[in-house]
Amino acid sequence: MLDRSGSAVSIVIGSRVYRSAFLSLLIAGIGTSAATPQLTLFLIRELNTPLPVAGLYYVTNLAAPLAGFLIGRLSDRTPERLLWFRICALVGALGWIAMAAAHAVWLPFVISAVALSIGGGAMAQLFAACRDELSRHPTKADNRVVAMIRMAFTIGWMLGPVLGSWYGGVFGLRSLLVATAVCVFGQILPFGTQRVQRYQNPVPRPPSDRRQIDHMMPLLVFTAVCILAMTGDTIKFGYLPIYMADELHVSDSTRGLVIGIQPLLELLLLPVVARLADRFGSLWVMTGGAAMGLAGNLAYATGTSVGILFLGQALTAGLWACVGVLGVSIAQHLYPEGVGTASGVFLSAIPVGSAIGGTIGGLGVAAIGLPHVFFIPAALTTLATISFAILSTRLEHTH
């Protein structure tokens, strides 16, 4: 294989690795998103967990960065990239099986903090393997190739909650968690016995721990800024439906349409974002995405009609399309000597943003109420937009 040009679709179809990655993310997306919305219900119904305690379950997401970092470091020292992808998927599948068998309230918290945090590293190492392939066989459409592969996970997240609600209602919540374990393990299957050798980047490794920290600083700053931009999503999913029901008196079907439109718009925007990044640069497009997220939060905070909330969802979809397509690629470029570490650190930021957003949302609603709570993520996203603009200016030559 030589340097390739052409459409992202033809490149993905023509590569066994990219085809496998697409199918793997589709399977993982369906399985994970089928169970995630049902976990609080599982804790309450099956384990008789008090509601305030069940709400703390997502705090276990704070273990994800440590797992992502350690797995990434190990992956960057292993010649075969898919080894750690397979290990993470296997540990994650065992974690979901253990969750399904749990009868003590504390067990799901431990399982999530340990096994599911490790299992979540599979996606990071899959993207690291794709980056190895793109580095070894460059294309003129790298961002669009990543977008094409990432679309599979978005499709999975669109299908999973619907299938999970149906499956859990028919076969029970414990059976649903077992089915999720099957999907998490099943993400290995499209790769068969394929091997993806770690790409040896010509950039020399920093000789000392101090230099390594200095080299990682742009990655860490970028990840922290992304967390600021992502905190509003948990607040939106938790409180926007309540605001629509209690304050705007919107019907159930319309509420579902408002919430459900975002992933569909995000899916449609993924290739658009990739093309813009190829033309204007990834960090500048990410800056624009953060500005869209800011406008979306302001729409939630000031919206008194369904139309304004639809606009807010469209703007938020722009932010998440940028995060989905560009986030992991930017992280890998900011730390090219360790793309496994970069992938793990960045993707673990998403659950951290979720945990922080949930905490901010709970405190904010109690303090200033609905819909004014959305001014808090608007302020955080303003800071993120400014920070991305500064990063874009200082690191533009990197991209």
Give structural notes.
By secondary structure, the protein is an all-alpha fold. Helix content is 79%, strand content 0%. The protein contains 17 helices and no strands. Helix 8 (121-136) packs antiparallel against helix 15 and helix 9 runs antiparallel to helix 12. The radius of gyration is 20 Å and the shape is globular. The relative contact order is 0.15.
CA-atom Rg in angstroms? 20 Å
Can you summarize the main beta sheet?
A: none
Overall mean pLDDT stands at 88
* Helicity, as a percent range: over 70%
Helix/strand order, N-terminal first? HHHHHHHHHHHHHHHHH
Please tally the helical runs, counting DSSP H or I stretches of 4 or more residues: 17
Strand content: under 5%
Query: Structural class per helix/strand content?
Result: mainly alpha
Termini separation (Å)?
A: 24 Å
| Uncertain spans | 1-5
Estimate the global geometry from the Cα principal axes. Answer: globular
Number of strands: 0
